[in-house]
Amino acid sequence: MAQRTIRFQIRPDGRVEELVEGVSGAGCEPLTERIEHRLGTVQQRRSTSEAFAALPLEAPQGQPLSQHSPA
Amino acid sequence: MSHFSTVQTELRDRQALVEALTDLGHPPAEGELTVRGYRGQSVVADLAIRQDSGADIGFRWNAETGCYELVADLDLWRQPVPVERFLARLNQRYALRAILAASTEEGFQVMEQRQHVDGTIELVVSRWDG
User: Fold this and answer.
1) Which of A52, B7, B14, B110 is deepest in the core (most CB within 10 A)?
2) How far apart are CA B9 and CA B20, in angstroms?
3) Does the CA dihedral B67-B57-B18-B44 come out positive or negative?
4) Hey, which residues 2-61 in chain B have their CB within 8 Å of chain A?
């Protein structure tokens, strides 16, 4: 038996952040697809391992925020 | 693969929309309804919240986008909050209702639901898979 947990942050403007925990393989898709079908367009998706691995490398990997300013 | 995703809420599901409006104190009438506006002008909508002022708030299904959209005479908007704020609140409540319904259908149980000081609703659902 494995426990599958999904944590949602529903922001005051209606934006939803969804974190799927404790899942391996393709099993996490049915619920999140069902939810996303009712809710709307997924703006961003990344694997949690990538998300955590990115933390200590924040400074060197950070995208410069001034990237979009006019030249 | 476990993942983290961000979704911008769109009003796609009628049931969740009706529940969200009811939660916010605006139980809508359903059917093919007339929404009244300035000087008796009107449009047809699928859901309507009747207002004593005569300027109703409606929601109309847009088949092209697959979403419900608000129809109202904004010059006659008399709600305590501006229309942008009204829609933001509605989107948040709609998202909660849609997620709760989908989670139950997929056999998940609500483990935790709480509201943070910044207004964010945190919801944790869980299921044991054999």
Assistant:
1) B7
2) 13
3) negative
4) 2-10, 12-13, 16
